[in-house]
Specification:
9% strand, Rossmann fold, 13 helices
């Protein structure tokens, strides 16, 4: 992961850098890199041309006393940058780096409407080895949202509902029965939706959703396959590799290089072809 960090305070930079580079990580995994930015324009350049796939923005001026606070124009500018990043690069998460104060909390509520994915609490998360996992969860959530945006455009409404559930909860290793219960229908109804929409079975759709999330972890965080399989409920690295070969036809090494977008594109073509056949 490459994070574009719009953090100008020297002490805040030092704490954040120590939190990201000093965290314990799985062997052979790649540590996140930081591209320091001094303005919103620097952030956009980092995302557009320098490969940044996450953004961290500091809320300056929100100390514990709450006596000093950022002006409305400052928040408006951060909101503008957040909307620009999320609008032009939907898979890139934007996180706020802020202290746990009342004033900061009010600002975060405003920024959440613009698309901020999560918060890194200054003085807490950066001291408790939590920044890496927060970045990984935010990246997975935004990748899932972007995948749903692409897939729902070519899927029937019923199939889109299954995909929405599978992408939202894929990290929890859901079953078809779980999806049916969440959508308040019988599992046979899910099968009927898939048949009518020319889509694969519900079980296959849920598996593809889980593989999209797994591929994101493999490609972005460079986690070993065994760790990805264990965290996401695939049982073992060999079981995950078997599902990748069966459904996607690529090796884990190829997926690491190409990322989850290739899996989304494959499924989108399959769904579009299926709908065309049934119509």
């Amino acid at each position: 992961m490459i994070a574009a960090a719009w953090v100008t305070d020297p002490l805040a930079r030092e704490r954040l850098a120590a939190a990201i580079t000093g965290e314990r990580r799985p062997r052979r995994s790649r540590r996140p890199a930081i591209l320091w930015c001094d303005s919103g324009q620097d952030v956009m350049v980092a995302v557009t041309t320098r490969g940044a796939n996450a953004v961290i923005i500091e809320l300056a001026g929100f100390g514990p006393s709450d006596l000093a606070s950022a002006t409305g124009s400052d928040i408006s500018h951060i909101e503008e940058v957040t909307r620009a990043v999320r609008g032009q690069h939907p898979a890139v998460p934007v996180l706020v780096y802020a202290p746990l104060t009342a004033a900061a909390s009010r600002a975060i509520v405003t920024l959440a409407r613009a698309g901020v994915a999560n918060v890194i609490i200054a003085g807490h998360d950066d001291l408790n080895h939590a920044v890496g996992p927060i970045l990984a969860r935010a990246a997975s959530a935004c990748a899932a949202e972007d995948a749903y945006r692409i897939l729902s455009a070519v899927a029937s409404p019923g199939v889109a509902a299954i995909l929405n559930y599978g992408l939202r909860y894929g990290a929890r290793a859901p079953t078809v029965a779980d999806a049916a219960a969440a959508l308040h229908v019988h599992r046979k109804t899910l099968a009927a939706w898939c048949h009518a929409g020319g889509a694969p079975s519900p079980r296959v759709l849920v598996t593809w959703c889980r593989l999209i999330i797994a591929t994101e972890r493999l490609a972005d965080a460079r986690w070993p396959a065994e760790r990805v399989a264990r965290v996401l409920g695939f049982g073992s690295g060999s079981a995950l590799a078997g599902l990748i070969r069966r459904h996607i036809g690529l090796s884990r090494a190829e997926l690491r290089e190409r990322g989850s977008s290739v899996v989304v594109e494959m499924l989108a073509r399959r769904l579009a072809d299926g709908r065309e056949r049934v119509t």
